[in-house]
Amino acid sequence: MLAFNQAPSSWRRLIIILATATTMAVMGVSSASSAPKVVAPEPIVSWPHSQTAVRFFTINQILAGHDGRLATRQSVQLASIDSVETSHDNSAPFARQVERTGEPFNLYTFRAPEGLLWTKWRNLQSELVRDAEVISDCRSDPNQCPSPAALRLLSLVDQARRMPRHVAIAIINRSINLSIRYVSDMTQHGVPDLWSAPIATLTSGQGDCEDYAIAKYEAMRQLGIAADDLRILLVRDRAVGQDHAVLSVQYGGRWNVLDNRHSYVVDTTDVPQFLPLFSINHAGVKLFAASYAGFWPDPSNDIAPASPAGVED
After folding, report:
1. What is the pLDDT of residue 35?
2. Does residue 243 have a pLDDT over 90?
């Protein structure tokens, strides 16, 4: 699993730092120090400017809600659009979510501030480019392929390609799960967190949750699935109290979750235990944020979590 809370450079600390920095940037909060200001991320989704007042909740605010803490107005606002309100039920603390976003979990995403996640992803993208070149060469001339792992990946993809797309996605999920033995990064590499490219992971036959997700990401690209339809998701699995990484694939109007812990493929609506934190693909690293139409509630009120209601920690 992702070790968000096992080391000083842990994901959980990074989440809080990133979300806090983003919040301070958008709110215009100044510091007594001379540190440079953080530039607020631009939203990458649209919303109905002329009809609805939209409010967003940042990751630190979501985590605070799930941890039973109270959040202040200053810590919760990532971005808001003030406009003409439409009629809606004002009896509830928050009104309905305003529209389908096209993103997993039907949440909004914003470009994450520069930081460790961006560095890791950019380094990995360079390795993915090199892997793709090796895989392409192996496809052109299997007899001269320098990587048995690349040939195995190509064989898997070619077998899946003969099947209907939803079956192919399930086959790749199951096959890669069976090809990799779960080992923590500390055990395998001696460091708390290391993202490995697919050929390296399939060569060693070992990896942790993000390595499974990365290998599936490349397999889906080789299958012909558009990069826009793929997301590596960093989530908090509240059912087991651990941070986790999975791949999400959009197909048939739904976002499917490919998890290394089981072979079946489910919709994101079927995993209410997942608290989505980050979404990563070719477009970069994005923060998840929940949007609600309605009043600004009193800042002393508890904050509604950005996950289906009725699910407890």
Report:
1. 34
2. yes
**Helices and strands per DSSP (H, E), number in the chain:** 9, 11
Query: Rounded to two decimals, what is the model's pTM?
Result: 0.69
Residues forming a β-bridge with 256? 249, 267
Residue among 301, 169, 285, 177 at smallest CA distance from 234: 285
Asked if 203 contacts 180 with a C-beta cutoff of 8 angstroms, the reply is no
The candidate with the shortest Cα–Cα distance to 313, out of 238, 234, 236, 204, is: 238
- Residue 13, C-beta contacts closer than 8 angstroms, at least 6 positions apart: 4, 5
289 and 50 Cβ atoms separated by less than 8 Å: no
Q: Are 108 and 288 in contact (CB under 8 A)?
A: yes
**DSSP state, 113?**
P
CB-side exposure of 152: number of CA atoms within 13 Å? 17
- Highest-scoring range by mean pLDDT, 26-35, 45-54, 187-196: 187-196
pLDDT for the residue 8: 39
DSSP 116-182: HHHHHHHHHHHHHHHHHHHHHHHHH-GGG-S-HHHHHHHHHHHHHHTS-HHHHHHHHHHHHHHH-EE
Q: How many whole angstroms separate alpha carbon 228 and alpha carbon 2?
A: 24
Q: What is the DSSP string of 6-40?
A: SSTT-HHHHHHHHHHHHHHHHHT---SS-PPPPPP
